[in-house]
Structures are given as C-alpha cells and as structure tokens.
Amino acid sequence: MKKINKLTKQDVEHVAKLARIKISETEKEIYSAQLSSILEYINKLNEVETDKISAATHMSGLKNVMRADKAAECNIQKDLIEAAPEYENNMIKVKAVLKGGKQ
Amino acid sequence: MNINELSIKLAYEKLRAGEISSYELTKSCLDRIENIDHKLNAFLAVFRDDALKQAKEIDEKISKNEDLNYLAGIPVAIKDVILMKGKKNTCGSKILENYVASYDATVIKKLKEAGAIIIGKTNCDEFAMGSSTENSAFGSVKNPYDLERVPGGSSGGSAAAVASDQCIYALGSDTGGSIRQPAAYCNIVGLKPTYGRVSRYGLSAMASSLDQIGPFTKTAEDAAWVFSVLAGTDENDSTCMTEAAPEFFNNIYPGVKGRKIGIIKQGFGEGINENVKKQILKEMEKFEKLGAKVSEVEIPHLEYSLPVYYIIMPSEVSSNLARFDGIRYGFSQVKHAPQDVKDLLDVYMKSRAKGMGDEVKRRIMIGTYALSSGYYDAYYKKAQKVRTIIINDFKKAFEKYDVLITPTAPDIAFKLGEKINDPLSMYLSDIMTVSANVAGLPAISIPSGFVNGMPIGMQIFGNYFDEKKLFETAISYELYNKWRDVKPKIN
After folding, report:
1. Are A21 and B102 an interchain contact pair (Cβ–Cβ within 8 Å)?
2. At residue B39, does pLDDT exceed 90?
3. What secondary structure does DSSP assign to A19-72, as a single string?
4. CB of B266 within 8 A of CB of B300?
5. Residues of B with CB below 8 A from A83's CB?
6. Which of B343, B377, B464 faces A96 most closely, judged by CB atoms?
7. Under 8 Å between Cβ of B181 and B459
8. A80: helix, coil or strand?
9. Which of B14-18, B30-34, B136-140, B372-376 has the lowest mean pLDDT?
10. In whole angstroms, how far apart are CA B207 and each of B107, B212, B303, B309, B349?
11. CB pair distance less than 8 Å for A35 and B235
C-alpha cells in the first residue's frame, strides 16, 4: 500500500472532476486538509499484514437471488419520466452530448 | 400513562381487548408531534389525514374480529430514505427536495400489508451520511434528553421520534451504526439485522455491502416482533437470504442461563469514556446473576473496522450516488439557473455542487479517489482483505461464545456543532458499531443506564442469522432494568 499522507489542491481538483462535482477555490483548500486527515487515518491499515489473505466478497455465505425470467406489468413509466427535471414528449430532456460546429 | 407511550406489545393487547382504538392511538401520536416536534425537528412529513383514515379502517376490521397482523393499527414513522409510493423521499438532501417516490420499498409493502399506520417520514443526515443528523439539509434534530445535544445519526429523526413518544416505533437504516448509535443516545432499542435478512429494495442505497434496514422500538421484544415482519426473502434484492424469517410474535422468551457472553476487550480500550466503560461492565453482573457465563474475549483487529469502513463505504457511495446527476430526478441546475449551464458536463457538475452537502461531497471524493486508477489495490483491495481478517476474528469468537458485548458508542451524545467541522472526530463516534456492518453480523443496542444525565447503550452482537439469541439476551436484561422508563422531559 502506497503511503500518501496528503492530497494537494491539484489532487482534490482532479478527484472532484472525476466525481463530477464542481468545487470552489475555498472548497479545494478545505477538502485538501480534511481529506488528507481522513487518508492519514485510513493508512492505519498498513499495520496489518495481508499478503496471504484473500479479499472479502461476501460475509454470511449468501447466495445470489435470481428471479424467474418472466415479463411482468410495471406501468410506472409516466411517473419515472415526470420525475425528471426536464422532459418532453414522454422523454427525458438532456443537453447535447456531442458538440457540433466550431468550438 | 398516555397511550402514545405504549410499547407495540401493550398497544396490541389493548387494541385487541377493545380498551383503546387505533384511531385514538394514532391521534395521540399525531397530537404529540404537533405539540413537541417543533422543538425536536424529528419529522420531515406527517401524514395526518391518511393515518387517521387508515386507523378507522383498522378499527372496523378489529370490531369484525378479522384476522390481522399484530402490527395492525399501530403508528410507525419511517426514515426518509425508504421509499413510499406517492410521497416525497428527500433523503435529507436538497438534491431530492421535491422527489416523489414512484414505488413502495419492500419493507413498506410489508408494513402496509400488516396494517401498520405510517404516520410520517423522519429527518436524517443527508443520504444517511453522518452520526448526528446535523448533515440534514432540513435542519438538525435535537436529542429529547437534552435539546442542546445531538440525537445521534444518521437515523436521528426516527430515534428522537420514538424516544419522545411521537410514534410507537420507527424504521431506520444502518450502514455503520446509523440505527444503533442514535438508539443508544436516545435511550431506546435499535436493531441492525444480519446483512441479507431484510430486503434493501426501495432503500436509497448508500453502501450496498453494508446497508440494512431495522427497527427502533421501546423494548427488545417489540424489536423482535417488527423484525419478524420485515425479514425474509425478496426477489427484488439479489443479496437477500432465501430462507424464511423466524416468527418471534409471542414466541421469544428471556434466556441467558448457561449462555456464554463475551465482553470484547478491544471495545473497552482507549478513547472510550471511563464512566461509559464502568457502567457497561457493572451491568455485566446482572447477566451473571441470571446464570450466564461472562468472560473477556479478544477481537484482535476490531480497531481496524473503522479505517476499513472509511474505504469501503465511500467507494460504494461514490458509485451509488453517481445517479444523482440532475438528469433523471431531483434538483437540476438546468432548471434552477439555465443561463449558468452550457453543456451536459456542466449539468452534472453544477447540479451536484448545488444539490449535495459537504459530507456527501467529501465521501464521494474519498471513494472516487480510493477507486481511481492506480489506487484501487492500495485502498479498496487492502480494505477488503482486512475485512476478511475481521470476519475471521468474529467467526473464531462465535465458536466459543453465544453473544458478544461492547458499549454502543464511545461516549454520551455530544453537543450540537461540537464535531461538525472535524469530520474525523465525527467518524470516531461510530467506532463501536461499524464492525457489525463490516462483518455483516446482527447487533442490537439496548438502554443500559445514564452517564452525566444522558442515556448510554449496550451493544450485543449475535452470530450470522442468529438474531434469536440476540433478542433472548436483550429481553432477559430488560426484565431486570427499567432504564427506558426514564422519560425525557421536553419543555
């Protein structure tokens, strides 16, 4: 485990972009300090030897539950569409994904 | 005694004996909400008309001697992260302020089928992230035992509502202690069932390998009764167990004689209030008097549960909360300030920035970082390996012991504002509870005395799917203690 004790402002900026959250300059400072102190605490795990241990995938021996492959009524499409902030003609409206023309 | 102070069991008996009606019981809770909740802020929505109408219908059925579930006609409050069709589900967040659920969670479906009277939705930390309910976008909840202190979190609204008799019981969700810690701070019973016992369908997902729904009640026996209604398989939750749930209604009895109770040594170490330790250890004598064998047990890696939790939980959070992007539901900057948004990425970035609070952003960022390219092995995989070690520690202990005990929280409820600017110190208040989520074990918090005038809780861990022993132990203890009779004085 790499030991990283500090997240710089640039790191925070990068992570915020990956997380799709716009943050202000002041927030970058605050998060840099707060996230660093949390990471420092998390690094405590380095004290534990885990070379021969496998990663946990389940805890209590549960098995995956499968549904029968059977069509069923749902009929909440209208409710789901209308929950969207913007919709039109029974479709959710979004900003253009691909940009056309000159940038 | 006012009827809103009744336990489920007593309310059930009085309803069937015709001593009270569901209408009276429901109205007494609704009146209590009206009279005191402006001081506590436990409720985000109250369904007065619906509840009274349903109560009348149940009364009619009772008078006709219809075969009804024992929860029929009894008022319950629901944490606002559990979906109820046609009702707002805010998750304590601005981003879902006006979101109306389009279906019922499985637990809601079960409660409705049982004839439960759902009287309202309760306040909580935003997306169930917090230990104080101060992270709610709709104002913090106050502890009924001291209005200057937190009720715990994240299910603080449900805990405060039950503790102040605004309902007979409530549901919450527990990802790292969000039922047990507020139950301890508010002098009531809180249960986190075994992972996979109760369907999570319709629970707004926080961390899917840790989340469980459970009840807040006034007695351990009540918790067992509610558990029996909630538990069981569900084709809509692929992690739900397939076996039938045990039926504890009028079928769970005190029993600790000859049982082996382990006091977890690491649960009484540094960082735990000395008076809390002393009080819990003193209470162990009562188990001995009842014929249990009490001795110390080691969970050597217990202290690593919290750092494991603070990698796994935010990682799962960052993935689960990606759906809140201003497109499909909830707050959108496109609608709020269209001139500010130029492209799709802008919609995501600005809607999330405006709609989510600080703690939610922090956890999403930690999780995003832990899962980002180059760090996955160092953080997430490392945490899942240590998780295996913790699971093995517990499995080993349960080879020798029936139940294990720690204090539920390291200290009494803290003051409002005390930890809000220091996330790490807030996280440390979950240090006793997270291990049950990390290992997937059932655990219950029961009232166990007072320190400096504030209630504290004892946490009992059970083995996987062995909630029965958990309840039997809790009920035995409860028979000889009346801590819960010390009611809050709300003036």
Report:
1. no
2. yes
3. TT----HHHHHHHHHHHHHHHHHHGGGGGS--TTPPPPS-SS--------S---
4. yes
5. 99-100, 102, 328-329
6. B343
7. no
8. helix
9. B372-376
10. 18, 10, 20, 10, 22
11. no
Q: What percent of chain B has pLDDT over 70?
A: 100
- The bridge status of strand B443-451 relative to strand B454-462 is antiparallel
Angstrom distance (rounded) from CA B282 to CA B287: 10
Task: Please say if the pLDDT value at position A102 is more than 70.
Answer: no
User: What is the predicted pLDDT for the residue at A5?
Assistant: 65
Mutate to test the interface with B, among A18, A62, A70 (most CBs of B within 10 A): A62
B231 CB neighbour count, 10 Å cutoff = 28
Whether residue B369 lies within 8 A of chain A, CB to CB, comes out as yes
Contact call for B235 and A44, based on CB within 8 A = no
Task: Report, as an integer, the average pLDDT of B374-394.
Answer: 95
Tell me whether strands B189-192 and B212-217 are parallel, antiparallel or unpaired: antiparallel
Which active-site residues of B does the annotation give? 79, 154, 178
**Non-local CB neighbours of A89 within 8 Å, separated by 6+ positions:** none
Inter-chain residue contact A95 with B346, CB threshold 8 Å = yes
Contact indicator for B417, A41 with CB cutoff of 8 Å: no
Task: Give the whole-angstrom CA distance, residue B19 versus residue B27.
Answer: 15
Helix (H) or strand (E) holding B160: helix B156-163
Tokens read off for B82: 């559990």
- The answer to whether A41 contacts B310, with C-beta atoms less than 8 Å apart, is yes
CA atoms of B23 and B117, how far apart (whole Å): 10
* Chain A / chain B CB contacts < 8 angstroms: 183
**Closest among B186, B197, B211, B227 to B71, alpha carbons compared:** B227
Q: Check CB contact of B239 with chain A, cutoff 8 Å.
A: yes
Q: How confident is the model at residue A103 (pLDDT cuts 50, 70, 90)?
A: very low
- pLDDT of A2 strictly over 70: no
Identity of the residue numbered B450: F
Contact between B408 and B131 (Cβ < 8 Å): no
- Say what the pLDDT of residue B480 is: 86
Q: Which of B195, B331, B388 sits opposite A55 (nearest CB)?
A: B388
Closest-CA residue to B117 (of B199, B53, B163): B53
Dihedral over Cα of B229, B234, B239, B242: its sign: positive
Helix, strand, or coil (residue B461): strand
Q: How many CB atoms lie within 10 A of CB A99?
A: 9
Region at B61 (left for phi over 0; alpha for psi -120 to 50; beta for the rest): alpha
Residue numbers in B near A59 (CB within 8 A): 195, 209, 391, 439-441, 464
Q: Which of residues 189-218 of B touch A (CB under 8 A)?
A: 194-196, 209
